[in-house]
Specification:
The structure holds two protein chains of two kinds.
Chain A: H1 12-30, H2 37-60, E1 72-74, E2 79-81, H3 83-106, H4 114-131, H5 136-154, H6 161-192, H7 197-205, H8 211-229, H9 237-244, H10 247-272, H11 275-280, H12 285-304, H13 310-330, H14 339-370, H15 382-385, H16 387-401, H17 407-421, H18 425-450, H19 468-483, H20 488-500
Antiparallel strand pairs in A: 1-2
Helix pairs in contact in A: 1-2, 1-4, 2-3, 2-4, 3-4, 3-10, 3-14, 3-19, 4-5, 4-10, 5-6, 5-10, 6-7, 6-8, 6-9, 8-10, 8-12, 9-10, 9-13, 10-13, 10-14, 12-13, 12-18, 13-14, 13-17, 13-18, 14-16, 14-17, 14-19, 14-20, 16-18, 16-19, 17-18
Chain B: H1 8-25, H2 34-56, E1 61-71, E2 79-87, H3 89-114, H4 121-140, H5 144-162, H6 170-200, H7 211-219, H8 234-252, H9 261-264, H10 270-279, H11 281-291, H12 293-296, H13 300-321, H14 327-347, H15 351-378, H16 396-410, H17 416-432, H18 436-464, H19 471-474, H20 481-496, H21 503-509, H22 516-521, H23 533-539, H24 550-577, H25 591-597, H26 602-649, H27 654-676
Antiparallel strand pairs in B: 1-2
Classes of the chains: A mainly alpha, B mainly alpha.
Chain lengths: 503, 680
């Protein structure tokens, strides 16, 4: 049935997200008062769920996969829809849906929540487009489509000094990074003479003394990727943006936006700068990613271990996870038998991470909604008043730490196995050591929730509301984290197939 | 055609469901969930009978149901870990025994637990259900790892049930002892399981790719194993593996020196004792050896060790049974002793004899325990035999069934125990004539015969004969159908089970086809290739030797000697204790009495050993605290220190961020540029 549709139908999820964003603007225009919160949330959730359904349907029906004639290219090859694009669109759409549902409660007393929904959905549109970009120009435009709404979202609590400051810093670091990224693109263009990824790849194969130019450009592009994925040394914005931003925004940025950064990396460093040609030209970006991965996971996890505030801990843990996922690019090798396996595992980890990390931030959003404090001590004994949500949080924490029997264990296991199979034992060893460190600070949260006694008997009285939307989102994310364990087979197979198609 | 083997998992799951029901909603059900357990075990029993009939019809099954882990490229071989079922004549027979005893124990519990007004019944019936389910899962297991898992579950259930009366001081301590002592053996078993998987890449019991088959092929030089440690000779290594697995067997089947938990386990409710001794826990060890007999038969040293441990335990435990005052204590030592016989049989190459004794013993020992339970009900939970006497006329059903069980235990013709014990001794004798170690086992087994008969009938006479020695014994509480019913069923079985395998009669009279169990286990009616007693005989190390008169003569002499010794023991007991007011004769034993009363001071020895290990553990503790923990703490403080440095990097000043970011990028550029030669 899919085959009978015009090719442009492959962009259905992107269109759905774009229309949802426009529809949100329309709703806001018709009823421009604060009460539109509910209708906006409903429209946003329905739209993102429809995009999710569309992308899952397209993946299942084999759109763009090798079995049905390969990737679909559109608009003079500027757009390329393949399984990886759709896989990531599914991640973006599910995180968007969770965030939108949770935001309904978070912004219940905000004076103008409307713009929030449209900004989130527009950012998600940009991400979906990013996943399908096949030209450096489209890539950059889509990246800005993601970044600009993100800056505004971080600063969305206009009267909150932390939020505004975080937005400002995010914007400044972002502007610098964008400049570096764009400069990198122009250098690559100068060296290869094209913006289309496949032509760039050909150009890399015949550089004729321009290897230095191309190399500079590629490392700068690595820098752009590092900014979006919050990897060292472009990570400085992340702890402050995540901490200052409204918690649903932190969830969105640390899950969806990070995945968007990785889709750039996966796309560019397989199709535009293939391993073999780059190494032949003396551009060892594999080493660059290896260094970034090792430094990022170490810094993220070690810094997370000494935080006092849960949200900031999660911010650093999210940096640490960026380090793990970077293994998916850093453990590639020329003719490596496990190239597809390790990159597929990184994609699967991003999917699992999308649920467990979003869920964790949404739990923080719930704590903010309740008005309990931000530190570990403030979370003491929460399980007595909110057992369901606390159990969900425990699931997220253990899954993030990579403990069986949660989905995070499997994705990490496959990732490290893939790295070992490809001969990168040292990266897997780094990952394993860091996972041990991470268990320390993740279990601190669980200990606070379940074992510690609250500071005073009245300190839990703040929990007097049951925010339905937040609860639903948190519980759904927890259920997904658990169900991804039995359902991990199809996920990893799809991801590995999508990754293998890139090589 | 209905495939009965697809219902085999139901045999295991039915009692498991009864466990769930009793646990979940037991307190809302009549009788605390007893009927659920009875229905479940009855269902399992009927299914098992069906399976038995199907196996008799020539079918068998060796199926993998669920592979829960598979790994390629790790370690020496590709390994698959799975759950499956192995239904052959041996496991079909065992299924029927376990489900039947379990069913009868459930029914008996109505009388012993419910009618006595015990509390916590749902917990009790949940435990019984899980116990039965674990044992059944163990019986049908098709590989060693699955067997180990259910073996452990059996151990857990024994802990839960022995400690059922957890508010009294004795039971929790006994439960812990049972758990720890069997765990000590299981530790070796676990290493054995890993060794088997590492050596062969599989833990399957049956089939051409099973570990006994691979071991056989490798020893014959027709194949090789995946791994042996450090160039060890294959035969030696297989012996080591066999002994490791044997550790679990010695623990569970209460063989010397790990038998000490079993007498203490009498603290559990009496029906539980019946279940533990007859059908589940203790039987598990012997069954395991029988299950992987194709492996043990390949290693003569292990067989000799098994035989010697068995023979020694048979005699050793029997002597301790002689001086006990409490009804259940006598039975406890008799169980240890009888399982010693089974081990002797297995070690002596008497695979069929061991299974035969396992079968008959299951019935008569269940009978004796349930009979003891009936007496205990009657005596208001006083177990001291010196307070009983004269119960014969007050409780005739109990008396006559108990008598049948005792005659079977003592090995008196023609009760069940006679046939099976005689065959064990016969096998040990004919194989032992060429093997001194085995002959030693035989002699100890033979010496245990009169001792067994003596303590058994001392127990019978003290309990049922003579004059009532207390007020309670003069007016015992009556028992109901739910006690008498199981006793009657088991009483009949204790009389007739021996007739399934009348080898002496066959050999003397030359009648073919009356050694049914031999034919059954020899795949006469079908079974699985490589799991027949004939095959085991072929690969085993033993040859037969005969006394005067060849085979027939040896059979007759052996049977006559053991029967004569049994009757001697019985007559001594008769002389000493079948009098109106018997007195203790233990003083005549002199110094030996104290030794026997104190179980050869073995408990003390184990406690002493435990303290010595504490010294070793103290050293390990110092090492752990000082060096290991020091390293761990050091690592964590270094991490936290590093973390706080990183934290300081996050100053909050954007311009610094921009600087660091740019410097970082430049460093990366330089590193790659220099290695890649961009600037040349």
């Amino acid at each position: 049935m899919v085959n009978t549709l015009p090719q442009v139908a492959a962009l259905l999820p992107v269109f759905l997200l774009a229309f949802t964003g426009l529809a949100l603007l329309l709703v806001d225009t018709i009823t421009p008062d604060a009460r539109s919160n509910t209708s906006m949330a409903v429209v946003g959730a329905l739209g993102s769920l429809a995009a999710l359904a569309a992308s899952v349907w397209l993946v299942v029906s084999g759109t763009g996969s090798a079995d049905t004639g390969g990737a679909i290219t559109l608009f003079a090859e500027a757009i390329k829809v393949d399984t990886m694009a759709l896989f990531f669109t599914a991640i973006f759409a599910s995180v968007t849906a969770l965030v939108v549902v949770a935001a309904h409660d978070y912004f219940h007393d905000h004076e103008s929540p409307a713009a929030f929904y449209s900004l989130v959905v527009f950012a998600a549109t940009g991400m979906a487009l990013l996943a399908a970009a096949n030209s450096l120009a489209v890539l950059f435009v889509a990246l800005e489509m993601v970044s600009l709404p993100s800056y505004v979202l971080v600063a969305y609590l206009k009267r909150n000094r932390g939020s505004v400051e975080a937005g400002m810093k995010y914007f400044l670091v972002g502007a610098l990074s964008s400049a570096i990224f764009l400069f990198g693109i122009s250098l690559v263009y100068a060296a290869t003479g094209s913006l289309l990824l496949s032509d760039v790849a050909e150009g890399i194969g015949s550089l004729d003394g321009l290897a230095g130019v191309a190399g500079l450009g590629i490392v700068m592009i690595v820098g752009g990727v590092a900014f979006k994925t919050a990897s060292v040394p472009f990570h400085f914005w992340a702890p402050e943006a995540y901490e200052g931003a409204p918690a649903p925004v932190s969830a969105f940025l640390s899950s969806a936006s990070k995945a968007a950064g990785f889709v750039i990396a996966f796309r560019l460093f397989t199709e535009a700068f293939p391993v073999g040609a780059s190494l032949a030209a003396g551009i060892d970006w594999v080493l660059a990613f290896g260094i970034l991965a090792a430094v990022t996971m170490t810094l993220g996890n070690f810094a997370a271990a000494v935080q006092e505030e849960v949200k900031r801990m999660l911010a650093y843990s999210s940096i640490g996870h960026a380090g793990y996922v970077l293994i998916g690019v850093a453990a590639l090798s020329q003719d490596g038998g496990a190239n597809g396996a390790v990159m597929g595992a990184a994609m699967a980890h991003l999917l699992v991470y999308g649920f467990m990390n979003t869920g964790a931030f949404l739990f923080v959003a719930m704590a903010e909604r309740w008005g309990v404090g931000r530190t570990f001590e403030d979370y003491a004994g929460l399980a007595r008043r909110a057992p369901v949500a606390s159990t969900a949080m425990a699931v997220f924490m253990f899954s993030l730490a990579g403990l069986p029997p949660f989905a995070g264990f499997f994705s990490k296991y496959f990732l490290f196995m893939g790295a070992i199979d490809n001969g990168f034992l040292w990266l897997a060893a780094f990952g394993a050591v860091n996972s041990v460190v991470s268990l320390y600070y993740y279990s601190r949260v669980v200990k606070a929730l379940f074992i510690d006694d609250p500071a005073s008997s009245s300190s839990l009285d703040a929990i007097d509301v049951r925010p339905t939307g937040l609860y639903a989102a948190v519980v759904f994310a927890a259920v997904a984290t658990v169900l991804l364990l039995p359902g991990f087979g199809p996920v990893i197979e799809t991801a590995e197939a999508a990754a293998s198609a890139l090589f | 055609m209905i495939d009965v083997f697809s219902y085999v998992p139901a045999i295991v799951l039915l009692p498991f469901f009864s466990f769930l029901i009793a646990l979940g909603v037991g307190k809302y059900l009549p009788k605390g969930g007893a009927f659920g357990g009875i229905a479940a075990t009855a269902g399992s029993f009927l299914l098992s009978l069906w399976v038995l009939a199907t196996v008799a019809g020539g079918e068998a099954a060796n199926r993998t149901l669920y592979t829960w882990a598979s790994a390629g490229g790790i370690g020496p071989t590709d390994v698959e870990l799975s759950f499956g079922i192995l239904v052959d004549p041996l496991s079909a027979l065992m299924l029927v025994i376990v489900t039947l005893v379990s069913l009868l124990v459930h029914v008996f519990s109505l009388g012993y637990m419910n009618d006595e007004g015990e509390t916590g019944l749902p917990r009790y019936y949940a435990g019984l259900g899980l116990f039965s389910a674990s044992m059944l899962g163990f019986v049908v297991a098709d590989n060693l790892l699955m067997a180990f898992m259910f073996f452990e579950l059996v151990g857990l259930c024994s802990y839960l049930l022995i400690g059922f009366h957890f508010r009294e001081p004795g039971p929790p301590s006994a439960a812990k002892k049972a758990f720890l002592v069997t765990r000590f053996g299981d530790y070796f078993f676990l290493i054995g399981v890993v060794a088997v998987i590492a050596t062969f890449g599989t833990a399957q019991f049956a089939g051409t790719e099973s570990f006994p088959a691979l071991a056989e092929a490798a020893l014959a030089g027709e194949g090789s194993v995946a791994w042996t440690p450090g160039g060890l000779e294959l035969q030696t290594w297989l012996t080591v593996v066999g002994l490791l697995v044997l550790g679990g067997v010695v623990g569970k089947s209460a063989q010397f020196p790990l038998h000490t938990w079993l007498p203490d386990a009498m603290e559990g409710p009496t029906p539980v004792s019946a279940l533990i001794h007859a059908a589940t826990m203790v039987a598990a060890g012997v069954y395991l050896v029988a299950r992987m007999y194709g492996f043990y038969a390949l290693t003569p040293t292990t067989l000799a060790v098994i035989a010697f441990i068995g023979g020694f335990t048979a005699l050793f435990a029997a002597t301790m049974g002689v001086v006990k005052d409490e009804l259940k204590q006598v039975l406890a030592y008799s169980t240890i002793s009888q399982y010693g016989y089974m081990m002797l049989a297995l070690g002596a190459g008497g695979y069929v004899a061991a299974v035969f004794h396992l079968t008959t013993h299951a019935f008569f020992k269940a009978l004796l325990f349930l009979g003891a339970g009936a007496v205990i009900i009657a005596m208001h939970h006083n177990e001291d035999m010196w307070d009983m006497g004269g119960l014969k006329s007050k409780m005739p059903v109990t008396y006559y069934t108990f008598l049948a069980g005792s005659l079977a235990l003592a090995g008196i013709f023609p009760f069940a125990g006679f046939w099976s014990k005689d065959e064990i001794l016969y096998e040990a004798l004919v194989h032992g004539l060429n093997d001194p170690l085995l002959l030693g086992g035989y002699l100890m087994g033979l010496l245990a015969v009169p001792v067994t008969a003596f303590y058994t009938f001392r127990m019978v006479f003290l309990t049922f004969h003579g004059e009532p020695r207390t007020e309670t014994a003069r007016d015992p509480e009556s028992v109901r159908w739910n006690v008498k019913g199981p006793l009657t069923v088991l009483g009949v079985l204790a009389v007739v089970t021996g007739f399934i395998n009348m080898v002496p009669v066959q050999k003397v009279l030359g009648l073919e086809g009356i050694d049914l169990l031999h034919l059954w286990l020899d795949n006469e009616w079908g079974g699985i290739e490589g799991l027949s007693s004939h095959h085991y005989g072929d690969i085993g190390p033993y040859s037969s030797g005969y006394l005067v008169g060849g085979e027939v003569g040896t059979v007759l002499v052996g049977a006559a000697v053991s029967l004569g010794l049994a009757l001697t023991g019985l007559l001594v007991a008769w002389r000493l204790y079948n009098v109106p007011s018997p007195t203790e004769h233990t003083a005549k034993l002199g110094g030996i009495k104290d030794v026997l009363y104190n179980n050869y001071y073995l408990d003390e020895l184990q406690v002493w050993l435990a303290y010595r290990t504490e010294d070793v553990a103290g050293g390990a503790n110092t090492f752990d605290q000082g060096i290991i923990d020091g390293v761990v703490n050091g690592v964590s403080s270094v991490s936290l220190f590093g973390g706080s440095r990183v934290r300081r990097l996050q100053s909050g000043v954007v311009s610094q961020y921009a600087t660091l970011l740019t410097l970082g990028l430049v460093a990366l550029l330089l590193a790659l540029g220099v290695t890649g030669g961009w600037f040349l």
